[in-house]
Amino acid sequence: xxxxxxxxxxxxxxxxxxxxxxxxxxxxxxxxxxxxxxxxxxxxxxxxxxxxxxxxxxxxxxxxxxxxxxxxxxxxxxxxxxxxxxxxxxxxxxxxxxxxxxxxxxxxxxxxxxxxxxxxxxxxxxxxxxxxxxxxxxxxxxxxxxxxxxxxxxxxxxxxxxxxxxxxxxxxxxxxxxxxxxxxxxxxxxxxxxxxxxxxxxxxxxxxxxxxxxxxxxxxxxx
Length: 223
Prior knowledge:
Helix content is about 65%, strand content about 0%. It is mostly helical.
C-alpha cells in the first residue's frame, strides 16, 4: 500500500490514459464504420481499426503536441520568467544556475545520482536529459504522425480515384500541418494560461499553486 501511495499520481494518470485511449478507440471505431457504411464499403473489426493508419495518426498527433509542450516549457523556463507565477523562477535568476544550485560535482549530495557527481560529457548529458527525452518522444511521435497520416491520406486519395502522394509531399501538405497546428495552438494557449493564472488564482493544497495568502508578486513559491 505504501508503494501505491508513493506512486499514486503516476498510477492515476496511467489509468486515466488507458481509459481515455480505450474510449477514443471505441468512439473512433464507431465513427469510422458509420463512414464506411455511408460510402457503401464494408465495416471493419475493432482490431482492424486500432491497427489502422486512421487510428494511429489520431493518437500520434496528440502525443507529439503534448511532448512538444513540455519540452518547450522545460527549456523556456530556464531562460525566461513570469513574475508572480509558481511556474517560474525569480526574476534575475534566469539561466542554468551555478553548480552549487544544481547540486553537481563537488556540490553533489551523498545520495545524488552518480552522473551528477561526475564531470564532463556524462554530467552534461544528465543535466539535459529531461528535455532531451521529451524532444526525442516528440520527434518520434511527429514522425509516426506523418507516416500514418500519409497512409491514411493516400487511402482517401485512392478511394476518390486520385493519385497518392509521397511522404515528402504529405509532410508539406495542408492536411499534415492542419492536424499539427490545431494541436500546437491549444497546447501553447493552455501552458501560457497556466503561467498567468497561477499569479492571481489559488488552489489550496496543490504544489502547482502558491499558498492561498501569498502575495500576487511572489514568484516560484509553492504551497
